[in-house]
Write a sequence for this structure.
């Protein structure tokens, strides 16, 4: 009986160690960074959004790329809110730095790097992910191979930097070693309290895969500093987007 209990303890410790290497750590309430994602966070092991891991976000088309950049900025705002530093790397910068303030990101805390070719971009991304002085690295790229993703994942397992790889219009959705794969699509906003004009951002957020977790799909509205899960029925256009997702 004692031997069986010892084996269970060893298996449990091994599982925790493996999850820790993959970015899923058991943290105390004081250590836990609340990303405000609500039910989405329950899809991850221990119900905690994995930091110190590489996330892959896929978009097709300018509209969805803009929605994905907004989602990334909102996550980035939660990640560096304790005074951390971030880097945003791209070949053709699509982000407008002053607009990041809407998502809780002070542009002065972000270093923007513009790169001429994708080969140099991947090298810079890997080196940045190795830098323990950073909190998060965002990269806008197109393709990423399994080997490249493994190197990035190995880098963050040592540095504990959070990587957010935005793949814009990739030719194929190949296998990668990233901890999670997301797809964010733009949905029509809803006017607030009958007011005219455009409402807050609204997205169809899909967690396509997550290591040791559960995939899922949600309609999320973003207001400054918070994510709201929409309970109202989706519009006709929204339902069409959800079906094609």
């Amino acid at each position: 009986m004692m031997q069986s209990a010892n084996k269970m303890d060893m298996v449990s410790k091994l599982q925790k160690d493996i999850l820790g290497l993959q970015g899923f750590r058991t943290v105390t309430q004081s250590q836990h960074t609340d990303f405000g994602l609500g039910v989405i966070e329950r899809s991850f092991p221990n119900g905690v959004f994995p930091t110190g891991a590489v996330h892959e976000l896929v978009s097709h088309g300018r509209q969805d790329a803009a929605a994905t950049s907004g989602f990334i900025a909102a996550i980035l705002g939660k990640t560096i809110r304790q005074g951390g530093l971030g880097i945003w790397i791209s070949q053709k910068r699509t982000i407008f730095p002053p607009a990041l303030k809407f998502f809780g990101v002070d542009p002065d805390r972000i270093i923007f790097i513009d790169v001429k070719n994708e080969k140099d971009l991947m090298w810079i991304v890997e080196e940045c992910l190795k830098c323990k002085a950073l909190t998060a690295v965002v990269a806008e790229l197109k393709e990423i191979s399994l080997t490249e993703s493994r190197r990035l994942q190995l880098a963050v397992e040592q540095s504990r930097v959070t990587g957010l790889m935005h793949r814009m219009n990739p030719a194929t959705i190949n296998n990668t070693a990233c901890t999670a794969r997301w797809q964010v699509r733009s949905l029509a906003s809803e006017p607030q309290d009958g007011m005219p004009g455009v409402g807050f951002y609204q997205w169809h957020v899909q967690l396509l895969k997550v290591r040791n977790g559960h995939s899922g799909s949600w309609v999320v509205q973003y207001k400054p500093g918070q994510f709201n899960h929409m309970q109202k029925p989706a519009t006709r256009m929204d339902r069409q987007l959800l079906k094609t997702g």
In short: The mean pLDDT is 83. The beta strands are 54-59, 86-90, 110-114, 136-141, 162-168, 180-187, 201-210, 216-223, 226-229. The chain is about 30% helix and 25% strand.
